[in-house]
Design a protein that fits this description.
Blueprint: E1 4-6, E2 13-16, E3 27-30, H1 33-41, H2 48-65, H3 71-86, H4 93-107, H5 114-144, E4 152-155, H6 172-179, E5 185-189, H7 196-207, E6 211-215, H8 220-225, E7 231-234, E8 238-240, E9 245-248, H9 251-260, E10 265-268, E11 274-275, H10 292-295, E12 315-318, E13 325-328, E14 331-333, H11 337-344
Parallel strand pairs: 4-5, 4-7, 5-6, 7-10, 8-11, 10-13
Antiparallel strand pairs: 1-2, 2-3, 8-9, 9-12, 13-14
Helix pairs in contact: 1-3, 2-3, 2-4, 2-5, 3-4, 4-5, 5-6
Bound molecules: 5-S-methyl-1-O-phosphono-5-thio-D-ribulose.
């Protein structure tokens, strides 16, 4: 099942509602901008590359609904729509990256008529998705060169096909390996508070026939100490120019543990997740989410006193010194990251 697609009438975007997984595989169609914003905010569609692809599809659908009699009005409404979608989540740079790409198409073709620009926007959104499939495949190939048959791999959150287009980033080498008869023993952190590891990673890997074992986040140290882990594979939401990397909350802890146990810690992501505007991780804005996600969501009854304070940052930043390598579609970056990352864009 495709996790981001156009509806048959091209008046909406169809996604797998990830909040219902693993219990129900249901697609939903979003036709209004409010529904689209809500789908990103509520994590019905999630994962850095997937929200970029989704946002570009949404902007095309919204562009089609604009009734303007001149290009300037058309572009100013399109820009307002893009800004609104972009405000749904702040950390994953792929969201603003994809929307900027779409806007650029409109702004640099002002000499064309509105119908032509709409066609170009369609093409751009499809290109963004097609390129992501190719990037994930290339990332997976590079990643596969880092591990061998039978290795134990620990992963955090979900960086699989659901979070991208196909294959995924951090899960890509594992899924590609399975296609080629190479097998790994994967330990998936459940990933509190929204359980992307339990609900999505273990679901995707189990379905693909991977030997996957789900663990609670606080068991990672023990499986590392017991010698069960040869490498840690995680995705990313924004990588700064010096290699500092924002990813799902809890990733930093995994990286610190990996350093302690001398286990390589690999970050996987397309170059669209690298933000050279952020010099270091201190420049990355971290999304703070509703306290109820810790106290109430996913449980039948509240798990803490109603009035108790909760702190719910959705991401943390792993210092580049803890990262063994950053794997992109263009190749594997090793320290010093300031130069190896810069070389990707030369
Ligand atoms: O809050 P989420 O579920 O969108 O967080 C997602 C992650 O942190 C992923 O690891 C990251 O986006 C990489 S997806 C290929």
């Amino acid at each position: 099942m495709d996790n981001v697609a156009f509806s048959t009438k091209m008046d909406g975007v169809v996604i797998i509602d990830q909040t219902l997984l693993p219990n129900e595989e249901r697609t939903i169609t979003l036709t209004t901008i409010e529904e689209m914003y809500d789908a990103i905010y509520k994590l019905r569609v999630r994962g850095a590359p997937a929200i970029g692809i989704f946002a570009s599809f949404c902007l095309y659908v919204l562009a089609n609904k604009i009734e303007a009699d001149n290009i300037d009005t058309f572009i100013s409404i399109l820009k307002k729509d893009a800004d609104y979608l972009n405000s749904s989540r702040p950390t994953a740079v792929n969201l603003s990256w994809a929307l900027s790409r779409m806007l650029k198409v409109a702004e640099s073709n002002k000499n064309c008529n509105i119908a032509e620009i709409k066609q170009m926007l369609y093409k751009e959104s499809v290109d963004i998705k097609t390129e992501d499939i190719a990037m994930c495949k290339a990332i997976s190939e590079h990643g596969l060169s880092l591990i061998k048959d039978g290795d134990g791999i620990l992963t955090h959150c979900n960086a699989g096909p659901l979070a991208t287009s196909k294959y995924g980033t951090a899960l890509g080498p594992i899924l590609l390996g399975v296609e080629r008869g190479i097998n790994f023993k994967v330990f998936a952190d459940e990933t509190r508070p929204l359980l992307q590891g339990a609900r999505l990673t273990s679901y995707e890997l189990y379905k693909a026939g991977v030997d996957v074992t789900l663990i609670c986040d606080n068991m990672a140290a023990m499986v590392m100490k017991d010698g069960k882990i040869n490498a840690c594979f995680v995705g990313c939401d924004r990588v700064a120019a010096n290699g500092d990397t924002a990813n799902k909350i809890g990733t930093l802890g995994v990286a610190i543990l990996a350093k302690h146990y001398n286990i390589p810690f690999y970050v996987f992501g397309p170059t669209s997740t690298i933000d050279l505007e952020c010099k270091t991780g201190n420049d990355i804005k971290i999304e703070l989410r509703d306290q109820q996600e810790i106290k109430n969501n996913l449980f039948e009854k509240p798990t803490a006193p109603e009035g108790v304070k909760c702190y719910n940052p959705s991401f943390d930043v792993t210092d580049h010194s803890l990262i063994t390598a950053i794997i992109t579609q263009k190749g594997i970056c090793r320290p010093p990251y300031t130069s190896s990352i810069a070389a990707l864009f030369e």
